User: What shape does this take?
Amino acid sequence: MTLQESSRKVPQTADDHDAPRAAGRAYSRVVAALLSRSTVLTAAALVLILYFQQVSGGLFLTSTNASLLLRQTAVVAVVAAGMAMLIIMGEIDLSVGSAAFFTGLVVAHFQVQGWGVVPSIGAGVVAGIVLGLVNGLVITRFAVPAFIVTLAGFLLWRGLGLLLAKATPIGPVSNDLIFVTEGRMPIPLVYGLGLAVLAVGARWAIAGRRGAERAGSLVALIVRLTVSVAIAVLVIVIGQTPTGLPNALLWILGVAMVLGGVLGRAKLGRRIFLLGSNAEAAVYAGINAKRTVLIGFLVMGAIYGIAGTMLTARAGVASPDAGNTLELVAIAAAVIGGTSLRGGVGSIRGAILGAFLLATMDNGMSLLGVPTYSQNVVKAIILVLAVALDGYFRRRQLAK
Amino acid sequence: MDNDQPVAGAVPSVDGRATALLVARSLTKVYGSTTVLNDVDLTLHEGQVLAVVGENGAGKSTLVKILSGVVPYGEYAGTVEVDGNPAQFSSPYASDTAGVVMVPQELHVVPHLTIAENMFAAHLPGRHGLYDERAAVREARKALETFGLEVDPRAPAAVLTPSERRLIVLAAALHRSARVLILDEPTAALTEAEAGVLLDRLRSFRKAGVGIIYITHRLDELKRVADDVMVLRNGRLVAGYDSVPRQAELVSAMLGETLRSIEAIAHVAPTKPASGDPALRVRNLSVFVNDKQQRPRVLDVSLDVYPGEIVGLYGLVGAGRTELGRALFGAWPGPVTGECHIGGTQGLPKNTNRALKRGLSLLVEDRKSQGVFHGQSVSSNMTVSMLDDLSRMRLLVDKPRERHRVDEFVQKLGVRPPRTRIAIDALSGGNQQKVLLGRCLIDDLKVLILDEPTLGVDVGARRDIYQLVRKIARELEVGVLLISSDVDEVLTEADRILVMYKCRIRGEFSRGASAHDLMSAATGASMP
Assistant: This one.
């Protein structure tokens, strides 16, 4: 089967190029795969983890700290995924931190009123979608750039929220709501998650084999299968430790699956990439640009609601400074994850990995007692370095 | 290449009339493997208006670019002298400073800056490094008075009409003691009356001893402004006249008649007689720029395209062809009036999506900025306009079906290399164009509008595209509207030819028409 496939491939490439060059291309594709954004990010995270583990004297890789790391990352990862979607489309959202604060307030308010967990979250998500609708409508109907509209939203939503809450924390929320992100994942869910990882991993590996234009895919197959199994085992093992895995992980995965699916498989996702790549051509190709942008902001609105819920659940109250600088961290995560601010390029997976990389550094440096301002210096360097290196590799590839 | 070939009747013989302002000798410019300007000489005297005419792609703009420093010294062969001194312009700024000022077809007048600021944009008067507004206004007023323009230099440029905008740029240039003015299609964006005003003014410039190089497609203007005329064809200077000749003679020179008709006949394919109900029926279509003056780009155009028929729409730059195509496709931002039937359905499409839904697609003129999605795969570039037909549950892209469709199209259109996952940027221009042609082949296609489909496409791909278009028309029973400024293209590929000039259709020709007739209609030469 595999032999047949690879022999079918050869004439296709040998058509216009001679054999040594085709072989060279196969080799460079393996190198490219090794140097792909996700691989580099994962490797960087691993190096960081090992480093922190070493320097902190084994404190970093405890199940308590791993759980903390996941819970810290969750909001940023979810928001970064939405941000990546908007940036790919050629838009941006500076209001997400304030909007998440606002929806978190809504959730806390209904909790205090005695509503159940699900209705409270639902109210938060609806509020988020309304905010997203406002952003999207102003951007599309009045042709105001997203940068400006969401900059206004950045001031407006927090201002409005503080006004309504009289600038005091709203809470406390019920333990059930806190459990939604901070709680330990029940054992059946852990096993379910492990199986899901295996299933997705198998699909991923097979997809790599099917691509007729990918050479060196046997290596990829093995790598992908190994990685999937390792992750599944890790999930199940950690899930059974006393600390276990936090429910926050499920939120990250849920949002990633939905948005990743939209970008990778849905018509909407295709249009998002094309619109971000060339807005003028998109109009000539029959894409309804305004509608696409509006839908994008509605999706982002739902993410406001989810992020707000997670902020409130994590703190146990809706505090006035919740979600501060969240928009900037999310943009940084998306960009580190390979999303181009010029539009048309990026991935959800990258954005989430970017969020993890940033959170790992936060967590590790805090563990080592590095003050916050020094942490910022390091993160700034990483951000610029990531983009600069990416540009360098891309230019080198184009020069070939 | 062969620079030592003498060209008959090349230089307008005006020696001894006045001193030569500008002399260019054997200018040659090569891009890649094509020679776009070949051994062209030119002499311009004080007070002379030298008109340069030729088809699109004849080398006019390259000539102008060299003289105005856009193509810098060193990137072309030949010499340029201003007032007898060798000139080696490294940039438009350098030529400007030396008194050779070019006024491009598309003016860069910034509407919200004042008239004075626009006039002196690159040469703002300063004091101690700061902008001296009073000096600028004073100077601007002087310059404007010289040409009898009664506008306040402190007003924003937005108040000016298009012809006035052109005039303030000219006035500013002359005020900076410009000696040579190069005007590229100065009347293209103007109404008849505005053009008249501009042409009258040019006379007063001439009295001031300025030499003018006047590029135009509008042959009927020449009598009013030009002293001498030079004709370019395929980068060569093919004729020079020291008075304005009959328009028919100019048209012949522009086309190089004898050679061409033989070539044209050799390629002629059988025509298809029009029959049945038209695939596209347009009545009294007018297209306006969205401003108060309702400036028309297309006026009162009526046409029919029948299923299986290829109708050529010939016209030179600025005739209104592209605007017509965009309006029919629902992609024109301004007001459009008139009637339109596509297939059986009536009404003008409100947007591009509706047009596609009704079976009308457009291959855009500007491939780079309006067509290609850079960095995206060949596959997604090709299927973007048919995603609705390639989806499951109206939500997800049906990837196996998409792959199948793309493979089929790539094979049928002959895209090379036949790889669908690579970024489209990796393909040559011609192959990119084939991908975009594939994008137009939506299900249930009824009308296909092609806007300059072979612009910047190499010869091999060009032939492929012609064959494909004919196949699409004949086999799928699609009505094709072929917009082109290439006489050969419409003569060999179209079953029927409409010619546009100044926003209107000025003539209809059958396949056997001569290039001369087309060019006459397209330059206003055959008008009563």
Observations:
- Confidence is low (pLDDT under 50) at residues 1-17, 258-268 of chain B.
